[in-house]
């Protein structure tokens, strides 16, 4: 399922996102996503073949797995992209199915909440251009607005995502 880019997207970004399809090259449907926190990359696979690498991803605290609500860490483990939000506070967002049953059990055993609402998203909507500096999220994975548009168009709901240290 391909998502269309919302109407509110700047015309320039719409043109850039559609360039591949207009050149006769269909965008691949991504069926597996691997996030490497230490390398700060997202690897995108289609039918077992690496088709694109997104570099310089931004997170909250990149060291260690997310354990509790408010720890600002990005989860580690196997999840899925389960829904998309075109109207988030950031330019487009794809929800990661964190917390898993194991994540919930770990937090509950310590009398805490595992948290949730972990997304891959673009930059804040109020940012005129460019990127926020450094690691600034509360555990989400942030990419450039152009990169989230690519993900938005190629990563369907139900896609497996592995987040590794």
TrEMBL record:
Record keywords: Cell shape, Cell wall biogenesis/degradation, Peptidoglycan synthesis, Signal, Transferase
The protein's annotated pathway: Cell wall biogenesis; peptidoglycan biosynthesis
Domain annotation L,D-TPase catalytic: ranges: 31-164
Record has Glycosyltransferase as a keyword: no
UniProt keyword Transferase, yes or no: yes
Gene3D superfamilies referenced in this protein's UniProt entry, alphabetically: L,D-transpeptidase catalytic domain-like (2.40.440.10)
PROSITE patterns xref list: LD_TPASE
Domain of life of the source: Bacteria
Single annotated GO MF: carboxypeptidase activity
Signal peptide: 1-21
Annotated Pfam families: YkuD
GO biological process, alphabetically ordered: cell wall organization; peptidoglycan biosynthetic process; regulation of cell shape
Catalytic residues of the enzyme: 121, 140
Stated family: Belongs to the YkuD family.
Protein's name according to its UniProt entry: L,D-transpeptidase catalytic domain
